[in-house]
Each structure stands twice: as structure tokens, then as C-alpha cells.
Write a structure and sequence with these properties.
Radius of gyration: 19 Å
Strand content: under 5%
CATH topology of the largest domain: Rna Polymerase Sigma Factor, Chain: A
CATH class of the largest domain: Mainly Alpha
Number of domains: 2
Order of helices and strands: HHHHHHHHHH
CATH superfamily of the largest domain: RNA polymerase sigma factor, region 2, helix turn helix motif
Distance between the termini: 44 Å
């Protein structure tokens, strides 16, 4: 339990996932969790992905909250972020290490070029604000805070748009119907 919190029920409220407690935990620990991810990941968008995942997992998983043993909450969350960042980096390295395919690359179509073409087709269907979000976050690599500032919107709104955009892009790439929400 945070030492400055006089609420004797704080830990029970934390384990239940009480909204006010979760908001406080997020506000108090966001910067530390982001720094923990930044020690492993250099890309701002990758760091933001890890930070978002840590807090989504924390808010949605009672089992995760109950695994906290009452020690330093910040240290616990930073350890989780660090481990997730390491896993992310390993996954990305495995996915992007194409050196073994260099000999066959000339004969095969360029998957990155194909993806760029699909991304361009997807972007054409978006309204201008969401197209700009796609550009700022995933092409230029701005953080959520930076992109929200350039778009003139709260970061929480940007997070919602980003989640919606990712789901729509996944559906587009898998050839599934895309909801009409933002596209």
C-alpha cells in the first residue's frame, strides 16, 4: 500500500480493481513504468505499447492485482513492464530478423512493400483525423502524449482512437469487414 495513503481499505480496493484506486495507481506510476520500458525499448511507440499493456492488464485482471504482495507497487509494476518489454524486444527481433532469407529475397515479392501498399489502401478509407493519427503514431513514431498534443485532443481519446484503429487495421489485413466507426 502506498505510504501516503491513509485509507485502511486501500489494498482490498486495489485487489477489487476499484476505479478510483486504479486511476491513482495509473497517475502515480505512469512515468516510472514508461522509464522501465524505455530502458529496454528505444522506439517511443513500442514503449507506449508496453505501458498501455501493463495498465490494461492491471485493470482487467484481478489475478494480476492479487499477485501483488504488498511491497513497493511502483517496483512491482516496473518489473512487469521490464519483463514485457524484454519479451516484446525478443518477439520483434525474431519477427524482423530476415538475414536467413536474403538469398531468396530477390525471387520473392517484398512483404514490407506489400504491407505498405495495404496500409496505404487502409489509410485512404480513414477520415483525415484518424489518418493523421496513423501517420503520427505509427509512421513518425511519436508518443501518445506528443501525438495528442499535435492533434489537439486528450491522450485518453487518442488511446481510444488508437485501439479502434489497430482493430480496424487487423480486420483489414485479415480481409474481414471493417466497422464503419472511423474508417
Amino acid at each position: 500500500m502506498p505510504s501516503r495513503n491513509p485509507d485502511p481499505n486501500w489494498e482490498a480496493r486495489f485487489h477489487r480493481g476499484d476505479k478510483d484506486v486504479m486511476e491513482t495507481v495509473y497517475r502515480d506510476n505512469f512515468d516510472a513504468v514508461r522509464r522501465a520500458a524505455a530502458r529496454i525499448l528505444s522506439e517511443p511507440a513500442d514503449r507506449d505499447t508496453i505501458v498501455q499493456q501493463v495498465f490494461v492488464d492491471l485493470c482487467s485482471s484481478r489475478r494480476m492485482r492479487e499477485s501483488w504482495s504488498g511491497t513497493s507497487l511502483t517496483a512491482w509494476l516496473c518489473t512487469i513492464a521490464r519483463n514485457q518489454a524484454i519479451d516484446f524486444a525478443r518477439r520483434e527481433k525474431r519477427l524482423t530478423d530476415l538475414s536467413a532469407l536474403e538469398n531468396t529475397a530477390a525471387a520473392a515479392p517484398d512483404p514490407l512493400q506489400e504491407f505498405r501498399q495495404e496500409l496505404a489502401r487502409f489509410a485512404e478509407r480513414l477520415d483525415s483525423s484518424r489518418r493523421q493519427l496513423l501517420e503520427l503514431r505509427f509512421v513518425r513514431g511519436l508518443t501518445q502524449v506528443e501525438a495528442a498534443g499535435q492533434l489537439g485532443m486528450p491522450r485518453s481519446t487518442l488511446e481510444d482512437w488508437e485501439r479502434e484503429l489497430r482493430n480496424q487495421l487487423a480486420a483489414h489485413l485479415l480481409g474481414k469487414p471493417v466497422s464503419k466507426g472511423a474508417a
